[in-house]
Amino acid sequence: MGAPLPEGPFKLAPPLVFAPAELARAIGERLVGFLSWLGAVSMLTGRCVVSARHRFELGLTVSQMYYIGIQSFSITFLTAAFVGMIMTLQFQWGLERFGAALYAGKLVSLSFVMELGPTLTAVLVGGRVGAGITAELGSMAVTEQIDAIRALGADPVGKLVVPRVVAATLSMPVLVMIANVVGITGAMIINTTAVGITPRFFMDQVVTTVDVSELMHGVIKSFFFGYFIGIIGCNGGLNIRGGTVGVGSGTTRTVVTTSITILIGDFFLTKVLLPFT
Question: What pLDDT, on the 0 to 100 scale, is given for residue 259?
Fold first, then answer.
C-alpha cells in the first residue's frame, strides 16, 4: 500500500454532496436576490424620471458626457479598429476557398453595424464607466457624503444619478457611430491591401449592403446599452456598504453585472428589432 498523503495543502477535500433541500434553498436565494436587484433598479429608474421632470442638471450632465463619451474615445477607437481588421482577415480566409475574398467588406460592414460595433463598445465602455461610477458613488456613500446632500435638502438622485444615466444613454450612440466608422475603415485597409481591390470598390460594397434600417438597428440598441451602464453603475454605488472593501467588491460586481446585462439585453433587443430591419 502507498504512503498516505501528507496533511496541509495536499489534504483531500470531502466529497461534495448536493442535497435537494440545499440546492432548492440556494436557487431560491439567488432568485430572491435577482428580484430584489431588479426591483431596486426599477425603483431608481422611476426616481430618475420624477427627479428629471422637476429639475434637470444640464451642467452636471454635460460634464458627465465628457467623462463617459470623450474620455472613452481611445478604448472605442482601438477596439473598433482591431476588431474590424481581425474580422476582415477571418472572412477573407473563409471566402477565399469560394473565390469571393474581395466581397468580405459586405459581411464585415453588416455584422459590425448591427452587432459588433454596439455590443463590443458597450461591454468595454461599460466596464470602464460602470466601475468608475460605482467607485465614485460608493466612496461618497461610505463617507456619508450622500447623507449630507439629503441633510442639505437636495435630492441625491437628481444631483448624482440622473446626470450619469442621461450622459451614458446619450453618449453610447455617438461612440457606436464612431466605432462603426473606425471598424469599417480598418476592414477597408486590410481588404484592399490583401486582395488588391480599390477603396472605392470596398465602399461601394458597404453602401449597397448596409441601409438605414440596419444602421439604426445598432444605434437603437446602443441607447439601451447606455441606460444599462448608467443605471447599474449608479445603483451599485448607492448601495455599497462596508467601507473601502465594499467599494472594491461593489465595483467588481458592477462590471460583471453590466456585461451580462448588455449581452442578455442584446439578445432580446435583436429579437424585437430584427422584424423591423
Answer: 93
Residue 14, classed as helix, strand or coil, is coil
Cβ–Cβ under 8 Å, residues 117 and 226: no
Residue ranges of alpha helices (H) inside 55-144 are 58-68, 73-96, 104-111, 117-142
| DSSP state string for 30-62 | HHHHHHHHHHHHHHHHHHHHHHHHH---HHHHH
Q: The dihedral of CA 227, 139, 243, 135: what is its sign?
A: positive
Contact assessment for residue 274 and residue 213, using Cβ atoms and an 8 Å cutoff = no
Helix (H) or strand (E) holding 215: helix 212-238
CA gyration radius, the chain: 24
Q: From the first residue on, what is the mean pLDDT of each consecutive set of 10 residues in the chain (277 residues)?
A: 49 58 83 87 91 85 90 91 90 81 84 91 92 91 86 86 94 94 92 85 89 92 95 91 82 92 94 87
The reported pLDDT for the residue numbered 14 is 58
Q: What's the CA gap between 51 and 188, in Å, rounded?
A: 46
Distance of CA 125 to the CA centre of its chain: 6
Label residues 34-44 b or e (16+ Cβ within 10 Å = b). Answer: eeebeeebeeb
Looking at residue 100, its pLDDT comes to 77
Domain ranges of the chain: 100-272
Structural contact between residues 121 and 79, judged by C-beta atoms closer than 8 angstroms: yes
